[in-house]
Amino acid sequence: MSETALHVLTLNCWGLKYVSKNRTERVRAIAQELAKFHHDIIALQEIWVFADYEHVRDSVIKRLPYSKFFYSGALGSGLALLSRFPIISTSVHPYSLNGAPIDVGGGDWFVGKAAVSITISHPVLGQVQIFNTHLYAKGGEDGPEHNRAHRIVNAWEFSKLARQAAELGRYVIAAGDFNSIPSTLPMALIREYADLSDSWAVAHPIAPSTSSPSAMDAITQFGVTADSPLNSYSAGKPIGPYARKFLGKRLDYILYRQPIRPPTHLDDDPLPVLKCTECNVLLTEKVPGRPFSFSDHFALEATLEIQTGNRAPADLADAHNVWATPGAVRGPATTSVSKLSADSLTTAMQALAACYRFSRQRAKKELALFAGCIFILLAVVVGSPWLPHSWINPIFILFTIFVAWLGTTMLYEGFLYGNWECNALMNVIEELEIYKNSLETQAGTR
């Protein structure tokens, strides 16, 4: 079996129990399709039901004997990784912000979205850390700022994990549903700080000149994986102006980077280089014999070629590859590190600050509502002996239960969750401020 490339696939399975349509039939169809493929790594999102994961795992176990289903939050992370190579370690990092508990319809807070990873032992590359994630859903491309902030926090925490893995001398592959189009701030943070290369952008460096693409052109030429009119579940739902204009969104990614080598090892034998040579959108058709798609997302696959030699290929010398720095001719990995642009730093800090102010104001309103509920409960207790009719008692009991529930919820939201959110936002704001100061200090010493 050739070890000259890594074949990676990612798919959001949309597998929430009782909620996702045609879940059982779709998961079985997905498992059948994955068993036909020849990927070395498969990253799955929204595979919430363990029995569904077991079915997929058992379907591909002959080629991918190593796998991990990750737990997080109250309902699980929905994330799983399957590998052809032995797993030597795993990790789960729940994001500090995942929406609000009162947003039951969104559900992000309950499922505990996270960045998970496995570290595999590869015969050529050595240790490779493979991340799988699903970022916070709400936020969109246009804000408001307080809505975008949670996904920005996710992206910052994810980028730190990927960068730390590279600093440990590991190759990094990151796949998943990032809920962000390429031009958004979360993807800029991940590309710039974690120094991750986008497989689709590397494999399709020249944008097609099609001014009015068809739905299929949007998939094959622009990498659309969600909200496509060709997807049976997207066709009937309301979608935003961006998806209507571009016939879908590119939300799913396979990213990668090389390890960082300490200066004492720069004269050692050069490390192999990962380079994406092909990236395609898969499972765009309907489930055979059924009128629905495999999921509300399409799958994405990438071929990462393992290049060996004395020097890094010239076409990799771009601003988003850590080895492409002046004088770095010995190989792909150097001691230089990537930097966030001033625009990304400023915009991120503004969004986080806006969310902090919004959270403080919301917490004050919720605590005021809690105080109002306490006042109403006291009034009910005092006034209950003077009820004119006995049939009013059940109504008063139900009303008291509702007010007590509302007051408890507002106390939790306004005090516990409000402080949690503000503290998490302040932590990231201070981290970015320290990072910004360090860049200014470095610039001043040159």
TrEMBL record:
Its main location: membrane. The keyword Flavoprotein does not apply. Residues 9-297 form the Endonuclease/exonuclease/phosphatase domain. GO terms for molecular function: exonuclease activity; metal ion binding; sphingomyelin phosphodiesterase activity. The chain crosses the membrane at residues 367-386, 392-412. Keywords: Exonuclease, Hydrolase, Lipid metabolism, Magnesium, Membrane, Metal-binding, Nuclease, Sphingolipid metabolism, Transmembrane, Transmembrane helix. Pfam families: Exo_endo_phos. It is a multi-pass membrane protein. It is found in: Membrane. GO terms for biological process: sphingolipid metabolic process. GO terms for cellular component: membrane. Pathway: Lipid metabolism; sphingolipid metabolism; Sphingolipid metabolism. It comes from the Eukaryota. Belongs to the neutral sphingomyelinase family. PANTHER family: PHOSPHODIESTERASE, PUTATIVE-RELATED, SPHINGOMYELINASE FAMILY MEMBER. This is Endo/exonuclease/phosphatase domain-containing protein. The lineage of its organism: Eukaryota, Fungi, Dikarya, Basidiomycota, Agaricomycotina.
